[in-house]
Fold this protein.
Amino acid sequence: MSWTNTNVYVPGSMGLTSSIGLGLAILSPGKIVVVVDGDASLLMNLGTIVTIGNKQPANLLHIVIDNNAYGSCSEEKSMSYSAHLDKLAQNVDYQYVQTVSSQDELKHAILMFRRGPGFILTKIELGGRCDFCRPLNLAEVKDRFMWFFRQS
Ligand SMILES: Cc1ncc(C[n+]2csc(CCOP(=O)(O)OP(=O)(O)O)c2C)c(N)n1
Ligand SMILES: [Mg+2]
């Protein structure tokens, strides 16, 4: 599998994707930064949405893939369903909040995104593919991404 320069992957840093995305969005207001987060990951660093709501990055879209579980490891329940993550995002002043439960709805919600901070709660079933490989060359991934980020 090849990894693209336009993405940075943070597999060992559960909870921090949105914090990293916020930093990138503030650093580069001319680019749209899309954060793809997990439900347990977001719950692990929930204060991040308060900071995002406070900083109001118009170019940040935060997509949470919510299977209500620690899907990649134990499949233990994350309790995200009782947290109502979409309501939390609304309460901390995300400007665009959508809840979707199909690929078509997700595509539509992404296309309709105009001004952030945006939050798309994507409810999915637990299960699916488990054979994704993880990038191990993380320093290289970071260097490639930073090169792309500076050039573009
Ligand atoms: C700081 C840290 N703690 C624990 C892990 C181990 N870990 C990897 S994936 C995962 C569960 C992630 O759940 P979620 O964010 O809901 O994503 P899903 O796997 O369900 O898509 C855990 C605990 C990690 N990568 N980093
Ligand atoms: Mg999950």
Notes: The first strand starts at residue 33 and ends at 38. The chain has a mean pLDDT of 94. Residues 17-151 form a domain with the Rossmann fold fold (CATH 3.40.50.970). The first helix runs from residue 17 to 27.
